[in-house]
Design a protein that fits this description.
258 residues
Length: 258
């Protein structure tokens, strides 16, 4: 089945690498026009060029914006609307994890930073998307929001406890916003397992290239695995799905892993 997003406009936070870049590239490949954001313009410009090399003719606009900054969210959504006329898909992918260790040992600045980016950020970006592009008072109401949670938000994970707390709260936020913004906007979440990205390097580095991982499908996740799920949730095939969490973890949770 050929899934298309022709005529759609998407904004992907954390789009300079890893899962965010894979989602943006997949959307562009399927016909969407895309705005990608992250903190540093240099990484975004590289990402945009890589997407254009993969998808000749792709319309990709990089915009430097800190995911935890409300003004940056406002400006990025305004850019998407001013450039492309609307915004149909918001992917809240950007995340941070400054504390790796027990929850009881976290200091307040690191806790606050994690909440700012991983939980408050998706709320603020969704508020801006709703107010400027998707809500009933906008020119083209409707759309969908996809939040990147984590399997760490669904189970105990000792070194990722604070990160997991914010991702668990993001799932609850997803469900509440799905109810509040319906029927105009669908809001869903994806909970990835361990994916081979720079962000998760400390969790997979050192394993042999052909290592069999101790979960059902025996391999590390690839950013494209998550991008495929994000494509489905953004498409009309998911038009009767909202408030849900799609776990994409290679069967890790059913075998007790991450």
């Amino acid at each position: 089945m050929d899934i298309r997003l022709d005529g759609k406009v998407a904004l992907v936070t954390g789009g300079s690498r890893g899962i965010g870049q894979a989602i943006a590239a997949t959307y562009a490949e399927c016909g969407a026009r895309v705005v990608i954001t992250s903190r540093k313009i240099e990484g975004l410009e590289r990402s945009a060029e890589e997407i254009r090399s993969r998808v000749p003719g792709a319309e990709v606009v990089p915009f430097a914006a800190h995911a935890g900054d409300p003004q940056a969210a406002r400006d990025a959504v305004a850019l998407a609307v001013d450039t492309f006329g609307t915004l149909d898909i918001l992917v809240n992918n950007a995340a941070t994890n400054p504390h790796f260790g027990n929850v009881v040992g976290v200091d307040v600045p690191r806790f606050d930073k994690t909440v700012e980016v991983n939980l408050r950020g998706p709320l603020v970006w969704t508020q801006e998307a709703w107010g400027q592009a998707m809500g009933p008072d906008t020119a083209h109401p409707g759309g969908c929001v996809i939040n990147l949670s984590s399997v760490s938000g669904l189970q105990f994970n000792d070194p990722l406890g604070v990160y997991g707390m914010t991702k668990a709260a993001l799932i609850h936020q997803t469900k509440h916003l799905a109810g509040e913004l319906a029927p105009a906007v669908r809001v869903n979440a994806i909970a990835p397992g361990l994916v081979k990205t720079e962000f998760a390097r400390s969790l997979w580095e050192g394993a042999a290239p052909d290592a069999k991982y101790p979960w059902a499908l025996e391999r590390l996740g690839d950013p494209q695995d998550i991008a495929n799920a994000a494509l489905f949730l953004a498409s009309d095939l998911a038009s009767w799905i909202t408030g849900e969490v799609l776990v994409v973890d290679g069967g890790a949770m059913i075998k007790g892993g991450i």
